[in-house]
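Troubleshooting entry. The earlier prediction with D-malate gave an output that would not parse, so I re-checked the input for stray whitespace and re-submitted. Clean input:
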Amino acid sequence: MKQLAVHYLPKLVSEHELTGATVVVIDLLRASTTICTALANGASEVRPFLEVADTLQAAEGLDRATLLLGGERGGRLIPGFDLGNSPAEYTSDRVCGKPILFSTTNGTRALQHARLAKRAIVGAIVNLSAVVDAVRNDPQVHILCAGTGGEITREDVLAAGAVASRLTTAPNGWRLTEPATSARKQWVELEAAAQTAGRSLSEHLAEELRRTPGGENLLAIGHDQDLRLCAQIDSLSVVPNFSPATGRITLP
Ligand code: MLT
C-alpha cells in the first residue's frame, strides 16, 4: 500500500525520514506559488538560498543583467534585490530566460529540509492537479509544510489537504498518517463551505486565506491581491523539481 504523510512543519520530521521518498514542499503564501509562477513564465531556473548574504555572494562576479535576485524578508523586498516575493512580479517580461537567485524566510528552508528526498517538488494551489498527477504512482509521498517562523500555518495545511484529498479520492490504496487525514478533512470542509456559500472554491479559499497567519501578515503589508493569486486552483500546470545536488529548481 502507498503511504501519504503530511508534516505541518519541517521540525516535525527529520531530514533522514525523508530519505528516498517523494517530498512535496508547500509554502502556499507565497514562496511555492511564486516559484511556480516564475518557472511557468519562463525563468530558466530558481536557485533557493537560506540567507540573504549567500544569495548576494552567489551573484557576485556574475553579470547582473543576466539574472535576477528575488525573495523577501518580513514579506518585503530585500534591499539590493530585483524582485520581492509576490507572484504578480514574476511576469514573463521580467523573468523569461533568466535564472532567479531566491531567498525567503520559510519556503527556502523547507526546501533544504527535503535535501535527502529522492524527488522534491514544489507544491501550491496553482499547480494542484499537476502535482497530484506527478506523484500519483510514487510509493511514499511526504507533504512538507513550511509554516511561518516555526509555527503551523493553516494555509499550508489546507494546501496539503487539497493534495491529500485529490490523491486519495478513489480507493486507490493509500495509507494516510493522522496529520494527513486531518489536513484532508480541513480541505473537504472548506469545499463544503464554498458550496454552501455559493462561491467558487478558489474564491472561497482566497477569502479563507485572509484569516490564516500567513494571510494576515500579507494583509498587514498591503498584499491583498496575492491571496487571490495564490488561491487560483490549477491556474498553472508546472511541476517544479528541486535538485539538491545542483541547488536548482527547474521544470522537467
Ligand atoms: C516565506 O517563504 O517565508 C514566505 O513565502 C513569506 C512571504 O509570503 O513573503
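This one parsed fine. The chain has a mean pLDDT of 96.
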